[in-house]
Amino acid sequence: MLEAQSLAARRGYATLFRDVRFSLRPGEALVVTGPNGSGKTTLLRMLAGLTAPFEGEVRWRGEPVAPFAQALRDALLFNGHSSALKDELSAEENLDAWLRLDGERVASEVIAQALADVGLARQRRLPARVLSQGQRRRIALARLRLASRPLWILDEPATALDTDGLAMLAALVDAHLDGGGLCVAATHQALVLQSTRAQSLVLHAAVA
Amino acid sequence: MESPSAVDAIGWALRRDLRVAMRSKGELSVELLFYVIVVTLFPLATSPSRDTLATLGPGVLWTAALLAALLSLSRLFASDFRDGTLEQIALSPAPLVGLVSGKIAAHWLTTGLPVAAMAPLLGIQYGLDAPVLATLALSLLLGTPILSLVGAVGAALTLGARGGGSLLALLVLPLYAPVLIFGAGAVDAVRAGLSAAPHLSLLAAGLLLAILAAPFAVSAAVRIALD
Amino acid sequence: MSVNWFRFSSPVSFYPLAGAWSYWFAILAALLAGAGLVVGLVIAPTDATQGDAYRIIFIHVPAAWMAMFIYLVMAGWSALALGFNTRLSAMMAQALAPTGALMAAIALWTGAFWGRPTWGTYWAWDARMTSTLILLFLYLGVIALRSAIEDPRRADRACAVLALVGAVNVPIIYFSVQWWNTLHQGSSISMTAAPKMAMTMFADILIMTAAAWCYTISVVLARVQAIIVERERGASWLESLIDLRPKGTH
């Protein structure tokens, strides 16, 4: 269970948001929306444990978690703004590296299959440098497919994905929720989930 | 699923960074070339006389090694910071201290080690003889890892700060002073017919201290940079 | 009786206190410096070998000591800031750095002016002067890092790590420079061969050091107040204490 208790954030000297609270049980998703600059990314980074909240606290499985707490890192799969792909490595090597770091032992055929499933069968040996933005996003989808982490935090996961890719993303999130996982996603595009257990959180533009 | 241990983490980061480095050899050879060129310029600025060069040699070869290390430091975390890798590394279940240690080791293998290997060759240009050259190589082998370790703290602290490169120089070069003193001093001692053992022991002690302390400072700095 | 020391670690309760202390320490510093200068320039005897030029040590020695102490104090506040995440400790560290740099600069400058008439050179690669120069670089590094990071909280913590790394290195740097200096006797002039210390001289150095301490405390507290105003602007407690609005708007 992931809980936020009266979270507040500041950027520089301005308050971004305050008193953000929610509670997310296994099988539930939270979709964060709001205009640019309303603090969606900041909130997600707070939940992921990258940034300490200015006020309030984040709780994971009932325990308050400080930034970079081991309990949170053991459970979390964070997909940030940037793709975290090394241009010099191939799609396959990039994916393999992240799975290893997560402590997953995955056979190379499984990795190849996962890349084929997200439509990168022919590109899996190519260096990430030559891939398009959408294709790079699809590698992240393949990671979601293979990782066995209960908590997903996805920042703008729909960016650069085509219709096909969006459907794939929605299906992955649905399957994750069905399996008892939790998901927090920030998006300004509609993410059509089958799951009815999606809460919505709207951040408003900051008032100075 | 089991969280990776510190040893796994070191291995993971080392393998990954070496693989990336091997695929961008151009950058590595430019850094080594920088060392060669700086060392070659000094005789042009002073004089080609054997005596002058032999006196200058140890200092020049060591100072240039500091500059070469500094030049390559920006590569250590900056690209990982830009492309989101650093975020993933810091959020992974593996211990961050292990991951940054692996990255530092990879940095030394691709910069300090080539410089230490190249230095005796350049030392011949300065008319240094065999025992002096051997001490030069040995002192660089002990000293350049300290440059990578201490430099990594500066590199991590300046992530996302304005004026990265020159700021890094201001932070790191003063901290390099003891390494320079003991490193160049060791070579000088042998040239003067004395034993280099005290200098080299102090370098080794410094290396141990840096290995024990620097990775912790670096991982703290990485977390601060991501905030 | 127990005092809640953490009460003072909050900028809210510290702000008015800092103002009062800053004022009294400034007065104390002026009195001590005045007394110290009278003793140093008038009462202390002219040195047999160096003439009156030696009198610069009444500034030089306290400044050199302060440069060293302030770095350690700054590192101490930095450790507190990292360990307890107290905002005020980081502000103290931030406020100390410019004064530390100033003291190192004064020590180098007066050292050069002392060296010229005494040894005929402005700069000798003396062990103490060289390490003070490196210390000045360390201060400038902390100040530069602070100004290069936008977010004040991040800057606090980054500078704290740098100050601690520097503090571990300072003894190593001093030792290595000392070592280097003894190995190159040819180019070194010993600054320790100062004139034989008369009792008044030594006493006056202590008075001037006390003045430097009071001055440091006073300006650091004033600077902390400025930092608090900058960071907490908009906070209601601050606006009730001072009027931040531009003149003429009320």
Structure description:
The complex is a heterotrimer of chains A (208), B (227) and C (250). Chain A has a single domain, classed as Rossmann fold (3-Layer(aba) Sandwich), CATH 3.40.50.300. Helix content of chain A is 32%, strand content 25%. Chain A contains six helices and nine strands. A five-stranded parallel sheet of chain A has the order 6-7-8-3-9, sandwiched between helices. Chain A has a four-stranded antiparallel sheet with strand order 2-1-4-5, with helices on one face. In chain A, strand 7, helix 6 and strand 8 form a beta-alpha-beta unit. In chain A, helix 3 crosses helix 4 and helix 5 packs parallel to helix 6. The relative contact order of chain A is 0.22. In chain B, 85% of the residues lie in helices and 0% in strands. Chain B has one domain. Chain B has 227 residues and is an all-alpha fold. The mean pLDDT of chain B is 92. Chain C is mainly alpha-helical and 250 residues long. In chain C, helix 2 packs across helix 4 and helix 4 packs antiparallel against helix 5. Chain C is flat, with a radius of gyration of 21 Å. Classes of the chains: A alpha/beta (208), B mainly alpha (227), C mainly alpha (250). Chains in contact: A-B, A-C, B-C. At the A-C interface, loops of A face loops of C.
